[in-house]
């Protein structure tokens, strides 16, 4: 669950200056942080940039390793997951590294799009992992899997459509209500992704515990599920 907390906090931090400029009803302590030159000139953004760059590099290494090991399988869910992980964390690393320039982008709608896009890609990336676990679980239990991928596409399509509507609403209304809607929306999709992790990650973990103890694949997959959940 730590990965969702870290991503949520960094997403909020990246969007705070934009939201501060649109919302006059924010809390005093948050306004103080938003206008603090000491906070903005500190190393926080660069530490986050370096952290995301490291995660992005690890994802790229994993992608290359899998491709070299099993090139004949084409683009599997695992490969797409590592590619998306590389892209979303690389984008966040760039945005945090160049945050001063990003916050000066005009129009503001483009600035908000750049700051929100990593959060949307993060949602797509980790719901893809949930899809991967769900397919494993359903196949192992001889349950139908034909509705899992369509559900993934429909849910992601709905999330992106809703986010575009929120961007338009904020651009047109410029009201604190629109800003609050954006905050709640990102909290909801983060909670939804975490819930998917708990449901299918937990089910897969319990199922794998019943595999033979000497199974190397079982032990490796258990460690992987535990690391993500």
From TrEMBL:
The THH1/TOM1/TOM3 domain, residue ranges: 26-227
Entry-linked InterPro entries: THH1/TOM1/TOM3 (IPR040226), THH1/TOM1/TOM3_dom (IPR009457)
Domain of life: Eukaryota
UniProt-annotated location(s): Vacuole membrane
GO CC, any one term: vacuolar membrane
Transmembrane regions listed in the UniProt entry: 45-68, 80-99, 119-138, 150-170, 182-206
Topology in membrane: Multi-pass membrane protein
One Pfam family matching this protein: THH1_TOM1-3_dom
Keyword set, alphabetical order: Membrane, Transmembrane, Transmembrane helix, Vacuole
Keyword Hydrolase: no
Membership in a protein family: Belongs to the plant tobamovirus multiplication TOM1 protein family.
Protein name in the entry: THH1/TOM1/TOM3 domain-containing protein
Native source organism of the sequence: Prunus persica (Peach)
